[in-house]
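2.7 Reproducibility. Because tokenized structures are sensitive to small changes in the input, we list the exact sequence used for Adenosylhomocysteinase, including any N-terminal residues retained from the expression construct. No trimming or masking was applied before prediction.
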Amino acid sequence: KVNGIEFAVADLSLAEAGRKQLRLAEVEMPGLMALRREYADSQPLKGARVAGSLHMTVQTAVLIETLVALGAEVRWVSCNIFSTQDEAAAAVVVGPNGTVERPSGSAVFAWKGETLAEYWWCTDQLFDFGDGRLPNMVLDDGGDATLLIHKGVEFEAAGAVPQATEEDPEEYTLVLRTLTDSIARDAGRFTRIAKEVRGVTEETTNGVKRLYKLAKDGELLFPAMNVNDSVTKSKFDNKYGIRHSLIDGLNRGTDVMIAGKVAVICGYGDVGKGAVESLRGQGARVVVTEIDPICALQAAMEGLDVVELDDVVERGDIFITTTGNFDIIMADQMAKMKHNAIVANVGHFDNEIDMAGLAKIPGIEKIEIKPQVHEWVFPATADREQHSILVLSEGRLMNLGNATGHPSFVMSNSFTNQTIAQIELFTKQGQYATDVHVLPKHLDEKVARLHLDALGVRLTKLTKRQAEYIGVDVEGPYKLDHYRY
Ligand code: NAI
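Resulting structure tokens (single pass, no recycling of outputs):
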């Protein structure tokens, strides 16, 4: 803690370098900057204490400073062990007007390359705003902060945190340990947090799935805003963001020539569609796998071969998982791949690729080529000589682990939704039921509108008669809620 600001970052002296990047990012984030101007006087987030868990990148730094500009107090962690940009984390702590000696920004607990134990320690730091003050808003990406609160409340009610069993994955064991320590320090803490929190705004597909499950099981403890399913989020960030950052990660990680290679994209949802374009744009020969007949048909109509993974496992050069599901590429399939085939994931969690199974193959060797790039060497067998595959970011989000995630402009769309969602849930307490909501369409349209000028887009204005003819208001919304874009 320095000058009243608590933090745990890699190196505070990186703040100046971070600030330079923030300055550039602000120009590319017109939605967030417009909200800063719109709400400069009214300060709708005054009194909000936002616990944020979302990749601590340069773009997120601009989001954090926007929330602060709207009146909020913020504590932040990354939602992934590799995704922090250390200079952005430092810049947020130092703040726009502080110095390294006298930081005056926000509390951040994040650095690139956390261990999983450190990750959960950081997440637990989110909930103590000092002087016994608790968060009253959560901003989440993937739902880990929300998970900790919900599990904490469950175990407080049960009177004990269960012991981890042998079968529990390492990560759940760490969650249980974090909760044990946290509740030992302050029993009843999570129950009080859950009472205090007015709502959570969730960034990504996987986190949203967790929220709908909690709501369906009657276990959701506060209202939730599904930011992912704003059209201006999932149809932009998931698709155009990945189109940009997937090859960025591949290039920085491996610099392998993409043209001509056979690339296998597992999953043809929003992220998968962006991934396909990313690699096709480089001249890769792309095939996809899908379980959903609609998405599979879409892929075929786009001229893509839709295959089963086993059909191409020996032919593919680059394998990318985008499903949000688990056990997509298994160890025995990786063993059959070409020498130096690249295997990487851009889905939210690291269980799409069977990393645990890979490590258990007898005689396998893991060589670090550089951080977040590993060669796994399979021993020679009777019918095959020694060969390797390259795994990026240890199977975690490679566009954030090997590169710097999506670029500012597309994240401005996502984060303008986040900020508006925070304002909605914070200022309209009691108006949103304890359920999962999406932003009303006029706000979704507003997010898009805020990004048009920067691209020189000239929107055609509907006449009153035209508006009546198609049954909408001149000012929008222009589509019915079920329209799919
Ligand atoms: P989505 O639901 O639109 O797409 C996932 C697709 O995978 C679906 O079409 C589904 O049918 C398919 N799928 C599921 N199981 C499969 C299997 N066994 N084999 C083949 N296909 C399968 O979800 P979306 O929005 O594309 O997100 C996917 C993942 O990416 C989520 O985990 C999300 O949180 C994450 N995400 C990552 C980002 C990044 O920057 N890396 C950005 C946005 C989302």
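DSSP finds 20 helices and 16 strands in the chain.
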